[in-house]
Amino acid sequence: MAKAIVAIKPPERSPEVLQEQALAQVNATLAAHADSVTSFVELLAALDEAGVLSGAAAMLSQGQELIEIVVRQAGKPEAAGGVKNALKLAQVLGSDLTPLFRLLDAAGTASEQAPELTGVMSLMKAARDPDVMAGAAWMLGLLRSVGAGLRADERGSRG
Amino acid sequence: MNERTSLESVAAVPVEVDGRPAVLLEGQTVLDAILGRGQEFPHICYHPALGPIETCDTCIAEVNGQLVRACSTTVQPGMRISTEAARAGRARKEAMDRILHNHELYCTVCDNNNGNCVIHNTAMLMRVEHQAYPFEPKPYEQDTSNPFYRYDPDQCILCGRCVEACQNLQVSEVLSIDWERDRPRVIWDADAPIGESSCVSCGHCVTVCPCNALMEKSMLGEAGFLTGMKPSLWESMVTLTKEVEPGYGAIFTISEVESQMRESRIKKTKTVCTYCGVGCSFDIWTKDRKILKVEPQMEAPANQVSTCVKGKFGWDYVNSSERLVQPLIRQGDEFVPVSWDVALDYTASRLLEIRERDGADAIACISSSKCTNEENYLMQKFARAVLGTNNIDNCSRYCQTPATEGLRRTLGLGGDTGSITDLARAELVMIIGANPAESHPVLSTRIRRAHKKHGQKLIVADLRKNDMAKRADLWIHPKPGTDLIWLSAVTRYIVEQGWHATDFLDDRVEGFAEYKSWLAPYTLEYAEQHTGISQTELVRLATMIHEAESVAICWAMGVTQHVGGSETSTAICDLLLITGNVGRPGTGAYPLRGHNNVQGAGDFGCAPAFLPGYDRVDDEAVRARYESAWGVSLPLNRGLDNHEMVEAIHEGKLRAMYLMGEEMALVDSNSNHVQSAFEKLEFFVVQDIFFSKTAQFADVIFPASPSLEKEGTFSNTERRIQRLYRSLPPLGESRPDWEIVVALANRLGASWTYDHPGQILNEACALTDLMKGVRWERLEGYQTLQWPVSEDGRDTPLLYVDGFPFPSGKARLYPPTWHDTVLNPDEQFDLHLNNGRMLEHFHEGNMTYRVQGIKEKIPGTYVEVSPELASDRGISTGAVVRLVSPYGAVRLSVVVTDRVSGKELYLPMNTSKDNEAVNYLTSSYHDAITHTPAYKEVSVRMEVVSADGRTPLTKGNFRLGHPNPQSGVQVEKKWQRKDYRPLVDTRREPAQTMGRD
After folding, report:
1. Distance (Å) from the C-alpha of residue A63 to the closest C-alpha of chain B?
2. Radius of gyration of chain A (CA)
3. Cross-chain Cβ contact A84/B244 below 8 Å
4. Would you list the DSSP string of B634-677?
């Protein structure tokens, strides 16, 4: 037989009991991973000796403020330019670098391949060499590409 | 979304995609052709649930040399489709550039970049490196006025998905895009703040938004590793991103990596909604115990991407600090927390003691329509196999048991005859005594959409001018409780005109002659006299039914919660049989089940006379089967239903009760009577997630876990069994209900060894005929089964295609019995009290009042009074009144509205406050057959406490807003803008106005 009641006794949760429970949980975790914990503490000790630990703690506690400073600095033209170039270089690394390698390889054997040049006549004779003609054509193509890019940029900057 | 009954009837269309042949179906689009080849192809505004919208222009392909939008171009035989044509590629790039002019790309620090952001993914797919038009902020502030979501105009690409969803899927018709402005934006109503508009917070717009313009507030600052930082830092990072971009490639890589990292701490779990009987399913995203959002999926069978305010935004109650997290035992004037062992041991010993002394039938069990099928099965097994009594029931008796009775008498099975898709395809839908726009929101959207876009006709019979009544082609307002009369008069008229389905009746139905003679007195004159509906309207009704190829009838508590509820339900089924509207797609009977698992509670035997699968307890063969399966002898005595249990307690025959997940003290009728019964119980165990009103009477309280914290299945109003998966661990010491029942059973001598709900479901279904093919393993992910399910796993979305489950194979026309209504208005109690639901809250609100946003919008309930009555009594909105019935009294605020008329009041049940709860006014009169309380048959008098006062409606109540119906996003207005240069080659009418889906 029971009338409606609304009172609920709050559970027995004195601060001491809660702390005991929390400590028991922590101890259990530590004991279960004793080796890792030991290594970790040794690492911390090493960092502390090197003076790194207090610096790191300070940085973490400053957290978002610090990041904000870094980000704002990075956004300034001098720094942004550097980041931009780094990203661009990274992109370039991902593209096809075969032509670049070809150039580098060729540069390696260039001295051996260099003909004896005494005057205009020997120059014109050397120019008739099929390899030289092929290389010259390629270099002209290179010039054309550079020039096209230059002229496109000019048009772009005119808006 | 064309429904096709057989693929053979659809023509094949051969086309060429990028030089390779492909075969499509008639009606499919160029986009289907491209995506069907397994290629990725950009498309932003198109959404499968909405159809083509044509605002983004990113899907442009070349077809037969012309540039067209792939999403809205239907395939024709011989089409040559090219995705690689340079012109098309340039057009798509231009389209994307225009989009990025409207949307700032900062994916790494964006809360929407979780792998499914359409803009991010499309920009990556198109390998966007630079944008031609720099982003320009819009001249509008963010709108954060709605408690659940916010709109950021700066990020909005004006794709119009949200508008299409609101106008044509949810059909609340709130959103539109104002294309006239210099910088267009999405507006709510006529440009009201979201929180002061007619927005019902259903969540459709947020779900379909392809970027972070519309975001759930619970996601902001939570989803990404870097998104929760303070604004000044965040802005600096966005600026940095823009300064250093040589191209987006690198930035996208970083954001992809970060998005992947999010996977590690955002858990995405499929669940089934815990609220109404529509049974929406969706993924829920959690991060530890935080609920980030509900993400609906197209593959969800009942709802696809649709939700309502409760399903999309109503989950915070799970983490409420008021959750019960420890077992409690009554000691003197307070409940004291104890361990599970103590609580279970004490309960077991008290139950055994009472059973020893007074017999098993002195104990009763109440199961829960909110708990899973597995939990319901165990509850009735506990009552029968462990306690030894048939005293088991659930709350379906408070609502749809009369409908089940009507269905069983006439058609044979106690479940809706079809699926929600049938309601969408019916030519005519009738809604009788139901308010699905507020009680079954997603289900009602399918009807609203069909009515708005596909020519479906709608008839509503209700006392109130509710949302569906306002849209209906015909709204009739009968005298309360007289539906059987007008329904029978309409049926009689149809037979008289020779409009009845003679072939169908001859082949498939019995009892025509007897039924026809029963119809004789129900003339149009008689009906007009007794129901107040004019003969003209009745004839019009009959004609509309006659002219429709397919008719589906939905009904709810307005029909069933009467002394004649079973009889009126029978009359509805008789009408459907007379007109041949059973057993075909788009037809049938749809009593709308109210709770997430009220169907399942009945299916799994939580009723005194039924075992799982609706086998009868008094059937010898059935009993033998269960006795052998369970290894016990089953009780022979007839069991008590919940109505009879209350009387038995008062008579001193019932001494103890074990109740799970039910607020019986407030949802049963005549609360004063029920509560005084609870006071007399010698031993009362209540199992719940919150300290409910019912729990206040308990001797022992078991803390249970809600749906997100357990595994199991629910069955919705389509007879569809769906699996829910656990996304959170049980809070504190609460436990899933099935675990508690097992523990208690074992302390009473059972030796149950269930360790997973799958075992329970498989055991239960194997014992039934109805669900013998249902297996836990067959319900993985979004797979579902609609019973009956045969052994090989084939289910039955549409019933009665091949016959009716009677010995003759035929349905039965069943002459109903008229019952006069009770407690009609008289001198002392002169006003009719109607009651029901509100959209925002669920039932008495134990869950929804603990969702901050919902509580803000609807802090409490109020009584609706018609303008005529208000003027007569000299009161206005905000007045405080006492409503008094022979059974009790309540006191609350008034809202004057034309939703109600004359001397009919309406009081929503959505409150647990003693001074406002409607059931303090209702009686114990009940349906003659099923004992369902006649909640709708009560009269009150109104005593004015103060004639005016502060309105109970908050600013955020959507009923104060003014919807803005449009045909859709009206993309042609965008095309007419001076600053729009077309990217396609031919100018046409937009796809949406051509009625294409």
Report:
1. 10
2. 36
3. yes
4. PP-SPPPPHHHHHHHHHTT---EEEEES--HHHHSSSHHHHHHH
Burial class (CB in 10 A: 0-12, 13-18, 19+), A25: exposed
Q: Are residues B612 and B707 in the same domain?
A: yes
Q: Look at B333 and A7 and tell me if their CB atoms are within 8 Å.
A: yes
- Contact residues on chain B for A87, CB-CB shorter than 8 A: 244-246, 250
* Short-list A143, A140, A145, CA closest to A127: A140
Of the candidates B795, B718, B801, which has an alpha carbon nearest to the alpha carbon of residue B416? B718
B577 and B636 in a single domain? The answer is no
- Sequence-ordered list of residues with C-beta below 8 angstroms from that of A59, at least 6 positions apart, any chain: A66
Q: Does B793 map to a domain?
A: no
pLDDT (tens digit per residue) in B881-898: 999 999 999 999 999 999
Specify the CATH number for the domain of residue B35: 3.10.20.740
Question: How near does any CA of chain A get to the CA of B250, in Å?
Answer: 7
For B648-677, what is each residue's pLDDT tens digit?
999 999 999 999 999 999 999 999 999 999
pLDDT in tens, B697-740: 999 999 999 999 999 999 999 999 999 999 999 999 999 999 99
Which residues of chain B have a CB within 8 Å of the CB of A6? Answer: 691, 696
Determine the structural domain holding residue B83 and report its residue range.
7-91
Note the pLDDT of residue B988.
Answer: 56
- Examine the domain organization and report whether B587 and B607 are in the same domain: no
Residue (of B925, B913, B748, B763) closest to B844 by Cα position? B913
The arrangement of strands across the sheet holding B20-25 comes to: B20-25, B12-17, B80-82, B60-63, B66-69
Of B334, B337, B681, the CB nearest to A5: B334
Q: Is B441 helix (H, G, I), strand (E, B) or coil?
A: helix
Are B732 and B874 part of one and the same domain?
no
CA B299/CA B5 separation, integer angstroms = 20
CATH number for B488: 3.40.228.10
CA distance B17 to B81: 5
Of B229, B232, B696, the CB nearest to A4: B696
| Closest-CA residue of chain A to B240 | A75
**Do B333 and A5 count as a contact with CB atoms less than 8 A apart?**
yes
Contact indicator for B698, B685 with CB cutoff of 8 Å = yes
Residue B109 token pair: 């620090």
Residue B37 lies in a domain: yes
Rounded to whole angstroms, the Cα distance separating B205 from B438 reads: 18
Q: Return the CATH number at B933.
A: 2.40.40.20
| Contact: A2, B699; criterion CB under 8 Å | yes
The secondary element (H helix, E strand) that includes residue B334 is strand B334-337
| Tokens, residue B366 | 């109440």
Shortest CA distance from B683: residue in chain A:
A1
- Residue B994 falls within a domain, yes or no? no
DSSP class of residue B509 equals: E
How far apart CA B869 and CA B900 sit, in angstroms, is 10
pLDDT of residue A119: 87
CA of B676: which chain A residue's CA is closest? A3
**Overall number of domains in chain B:** 5
Same domain for B419 and B560, yes or no, is yes
Closest chain B residue to the Cα of A74, Cα to Cα: B240
Number of A/B CB contacts below 8 angstroms equals: 82
Domain for residue B141, yes or no? yes
CATH number, domain at B236?
3.30.70.20
Best probe of the A interface among B108, B240, B688, B920, by most A CBs < 10 A, is B240
Which chain A residues are within 8 Å of B232, Cβ to Cβ?
68
In this structure, what DSSP letter does residue B385 have? I
Q: Is residue B405 located within the same domain as residue B550? A: yes
Closest Cβ opposite residue B240 in set A2, A12, A75: A75
Do B359 and B408 reside in the same domain of the chain?
no
